[in-house]
Amino acid sequence: VEIDNNVLVATGGGTIEGTASYVQIFGNSKGRIDRAPGATDADLVLKAQTSITVTGGIGAVLPFDSLTIQSVGGQSVNLQQSVTLEEDLTVVKAGAFTIGGAVDVGGNLTITDATTVLVPGNVTVDGDLTITNATSAATSVTFAGTRTGGGKLTITNAAGTTRFVGDVLVAGASVTSTALVQVLADFTSDAGESDADADVTFTTNQINL
What we know:
Blueprint: E1 2-4, E2 7-9, E3 14-18, E4 23-26, E5 33-35, E6 43-48, E7 52-54, E8 66-71, E9 77-79, E10 83-85, E11 89-99, E12 103-105, E13 109-112, E14 114-119, E15 123-125, E16 129-132, E17 140-143, E18 147-149, E19 153-158, E20 162-164, E21 168-170, E22 173-177, E23 180-183, E24 187-189, E25 200-203, E26 206-208
Parallel strand pairs: 1-4, 2-5, 3-6, 4-7, 6-8, 7-9, 8-11, 9-11, 10-12, 11-13, 11-14, 12-15, 13-16, 14-17, 15-18, 16-19, 17-20, 18-21, 19-22, 20-23, 21-24, 22-25, 23-26
């Protein structure tokens, strides 16, 4: 599926699916995905057998509700600019998963079975941020910017280096990795009045603080 244009998510949402191959949303000064004016329950699913590429900003003009992404064959998912959503961003399966700009999600950010996760911009997630590798694929995770939000950070079964380059502010964290965990800036956990939820646990064979 090739869409050389912008995409508007209408009331009730919808699905863009490449049943045989890839999905690409692109174009000169195009390639954006936004809510259609006045749309409600604006949820979008991007699904492909192979790769998924979006060259424009997602929710940059008018954020929609939620976005679910699935590369059935576990190939690259490349969101080249910023992502802004009112609710959840969910990645069901991907190869290399990259967001080129900042991330601002009003709900949860959930990534399952991505071989690599690279987010060079700042990340703001009001809900929980969860990255889970449920298969044998090696997973490396890199947050190059500042990560803030009101929820908990959970990374499970990472088999590659997990790197926090910018400052991190979370309401509790659990990171499980069979490889190196690097914390290269301030890592702060604050759950407000619920101090028990603010615990931070790293389970790894090597950590660099």
